Amino acid sequence: MRCQLAQAIDRSKRRLSVPVSGRFEKEANQANTVTPQPNNTSFLPSSSGEYLPLSPLVVLTLGSSFSARLRHDGLRPPSTTEGAHPPSRCQEKISLQCPRAFRTALDHVCWIRRFFCAGTRNWRTNPFRTSSPVADIYLPCESNFSGGILTFSSQPSIYDPPPTETLLLDTPSALEAHIGTVRRATTGKYREAHAHVQGVVSRWIGVENRVEHRVKSLLPPDERLVPGVLYAAVAFLSGAIVARHRILPIRALLPPVLGTAALVHFNPRLSANIRAYAGALEDEHLPAVAQFHETGKAHALMGWERVREGTENARGKVSRGVLEAVEKVQGATGLRIREALGVARDIEEKVERVIEEKVADLEGVADTVEKKAEEAAKERVV
Fold first, then answer.
1. Which keywords belong to this entry (predicted)?
2. What is the pTM (predicted TM-score) of this model?
3. Band of pLDDT at residue 111, cut at 50, 70 and 90
């Protein structure tokens, strides 16, 4: 059956390829000038916008299927006997050279062409017409006919289709916007407070480092703190105990005076470093007070020197008075009171010290004279 149908199609192709005459030839030429297409073929649209050729067997198959579909839907394509539509020009051309069965199929195809090309009532005004006398059919698919088998070129690929990217737009609500604003404000305040606390901690650490460095600089490396510091603390507490029943100025001044005196006596270098550091701070921050203290120190030194001089003078006067009294008693009684008191021994010791000093001075002078004599002799020899 397939072979017979193929032979009939070949014969139809040869018959349809016979040139026509008269106005049909003119219309065919006009069609060729508008959209030049290969003869004896119909075309199907592809996905790229091009139209693929359709063989007459596909035309018959599609015509039969669409006729069956129309009959199922309650519609019926026009037949050649009813004459619902006037025969088209292609039908007139085909009726001269085609058998009855093929003409009936072409009638159905022509009706299908009118169904798909709605609004195009004239074959000459159809922009998708072809030069083939077979009716023009355009279907939204790609097809191919080879060996009597209808195949579709839009077959699924062996590879998976590329994944499609889905863009999701996150639209926050009003509540989320308010929560975000509050969270950002809270976070900002927390960061400011954290930075302030960190600054305070950093400054405190700096103060600790400076104090440690200053204490290390005040401590003398060759002087022990213990037991001098303990003695100073004991003196301070003793002053507080002694002055607890005294008047307020004495209770306020006696403990630090005793503690400072003990520290100066037992740790002289440490006390000197503390005085120097206190003086530097006073000069830097309280220059007027520092000047007043310097004046007070000068007056105190002057007073101390005067006290020392007065004490030495009084001591000398007392010593001389005692010696005179001893000499008077010794002359009157004949007793050796001076030897008993050790006065003569002191005098002898003083005399010996004076003699030793004089001898040392003489030796030094002799050495100097000898050196000068040697130098003079060398100069003469030269």
1. Coiled coil, Membrane, Mitochondrion, Mitochondrion inner membrane
2. 0.36
3. low
Report whether 121 contacts 43 (CB < 8 A): no
Amino acid found at 167: L
Number of domains in the chain: 3
In a domain, 327, yes or no: no
Asked if 128 and 35 count as a contact pair (C-beta separation under 8 A), the reply is yes
Q: How far apart are CA 265 and CA 232, in angstroms?
A: 9
**Are the beta carbons of 144 and 52 closer than 8 angstroms?**
yes
What is the CB-side half-sphere exposure of residue 359 using CA atoms within 13 A? Answer: 6
- Percent of the chain predicted with pLDDT > 90: 16
Instruction: Please indicate, yes or no, whether residues 146 and 48 belong to a single structural domain of this protein.
Output: yes
Does residue 370 form part of some domain?
A: yes
- The SS3 of residue 352 is helix
Could you tell me which residue, 174 or 115, shows the higher pLDDT?
Answer: 174
Q: Are 98 and 13 members of one domain?
A: yes
Contact 270/225 with Cβ under 8 angstroms? yes
pLDDT of residue 4: 57
For the segment 26-33, the average pLDDT, to the nearest whole number, is 45
* Residue that is last in its domain, among 113, 136, 151: 151
Residues 215-248 have pLDDT tens digits of 888 888 888 888 888 999 999 999 999 988 889 9
- Residue 163 to residues 154, 155, 159, 168, 221: CA-CA distances in angstroms? 19, 19, 12, 15, 81
With a CB cutoff of 8 Å and minimum separation 6, the contacts of 263 are 228, 229, 232, 270, 271
C-alpha pair distances (Å), 118 with each of 110, 125, 126, 133, 223: 12, 12, 10, 20, 121
Q: Give the pLDDT confidence of 339-357 residue by residue, as tens digits.
A: 666 655 666 677 677 777 8
- Alpha-carbon 371 to chain mean position: 84
What is the tens place of the pLDDT at every residue in 290-326?
Answer: 888 888 888 888 888 888 888 888 887 887 787 788 7
Q: Do the Cβ atoms of 256 and 222 come closer than 8 Å?
A: no
Question: Which of 233, 262, 285 is the endpoint of a domain?
Answer: 285
* 181 lies in some domain: no
Residue 301 is assigned to a structural domain of this protein = no
